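Q: Can I see a sequence and its folded structure?
A: Here is a first one.
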Amino acid sequence: MARTDPNNRARYWADRRVRGLSLLHADFTRHDYAPHRHEALVVAVTELGGAEFTSRGRSDEARSDVLMVFNPDEPHSGRMGRSDRWRYRSLYLDAEALAGLRAGLGIDALPYFTRNLFLDRDLVAGFLDLHRALDQGEEAEDAMLATFGMLFRRHGSGDRRALVAPQDRALLDQTVALMRDRLAEALPLAELGAAVGLTPFQLIGLFKRGTGLTPHAFLTQLRLDRAMGHLAAGRSIAETALLVGFCDQAALQRHFKRIYGFTPLQFVRAQF
């Protein structure tokens, strides 16, 4: 169960100038992030304190002298660890924001990051200044292009992700399509596995190899992705919860906060 604290503070908003860019300013005294992934590129910088996070099978420490970067769809989790406070700022760039960034920088393809943590004080300072400028509603197009351009140039690389075996990819795609089609239904492991000719144990292995998440965690993420779409379209939180397969509004709120660090209501308010 995720630990929470009434002293936690989090502000989440969508930028009004850069389409597809969302931002978070969080100040946590206790919060555990369950294993999850974002469809967006995530860049985060710590202002005070720190936390531990796990990605790619290893654990590292978020602190004020390092920049954290997660590729789109890259699984990770986090917890406070030894720190009693973690105040940080993060930027989330979805496909539309990344396309605009690519056009602004004049590059054909976005780089892939083979690490999640970069000891680069210039970039830490740059992203702090950028986030604070966006927070104040200032014009920051030049700063955004300069800062991300520096990040890509210094630390980006070609796509060196380990390729998923073709047979695994086919089975994974088939299972994910089934999950998307039947998102609001109960989907036991045995039923999902049987649909692609795998045992529950084999299905778990397939998802761990292909996504870094368990089938249940991946299904929860798909439900939250769909929930964001419904909420952005104006549906109520209670209606959305049932539409995407959660038993009630409280369940959606619990998973939402556990994964993203902010509530569905904060997400809704950021859209309008």
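Q: Show me another, different protein.
A: A second, unrelated one:
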Amino acid sequence: MAAPSNLLLKLSRRLFKAPEDQTAFVDALIKPACPASALVWMVPRPEQFPFSREPPLPWQPAWVDRLSPGQRPGQHPLHGSGAYYCLDLASVFTASVLTAIQSPLQAILDLCAAPGGKSLLARQMLQPDYLWCNETVGKRVKSLIANLKRCGVTEARVFNLDPQVWAAQAAQALPLVIVDAPCSGQSLLTKGRRVEGCFHPVTIGKNAQRQRRILAQAAQLIAPGGYLAYMTCTFSPEENEAIASWLLKTFPQFEAVEVTDLQAHTSHLAEFPCYRLWPQSGWGAGGFTALLRNRSPGQRALVTDFIDRQGMKIYGPS
């Protein structure tokens, strides 16, 4: 077990006033436990459930299962057949802001989509007519396509475009854009992974700058009445509450949306509705999420010609 760094201790004191909360947060990061994993079912569950599972949480969709520790769902034949997708329970939490959106939805753009978990969660929650999955980093596109294809989501279109291209081609045209933003990845420590420099101010500052750039483009895509879902897997306020606050000030047509299912997890670090899952909860690695709505009047049509030109089709098994 590694000793906590001074930067981690400073972060804990900024996040929590009570010493016991500070200690619990630090321990969750330096004493990695078996993370809570979840299954997103893409087909109806089998009658004989193949794993041990825990009782559902209030924000857990009916088609998601929380597994007991020690399960290995990635090695089961049902995984290979695409019956379900495995992911950390914290991803289910952050995607749960989408429960505040009425379904079905005409279209969803997942702007930072690889490896595909948020796209699959959004598809199951909102049943869109169109699912568009964008990944800026070219080497990650292959895994995104592979996961969508394995899970039978062959109606999706995959893109490898900078958010600036989207903003230029589809301004104010989309009802929902998801930004699961690149971040310092501090929650990965709860899984026993090394994340060098994740608490350093320079690392956090660079990520915050990149997040603002992505969100500035994403905000331009949202149609009047549409939504922008912002989420990360890190804990520093500069990458979470401060980023959402910046967007609300920079784009005053947006407002933060209250999400009933997540009210018990409202962040105490902001004056507007946004939500945190802390790693010491035992319900996953932790994360931040917020749902923002464009309250401007009016309507815009989808830009399907651009989609048809740029999107890669996913083909099913040959």
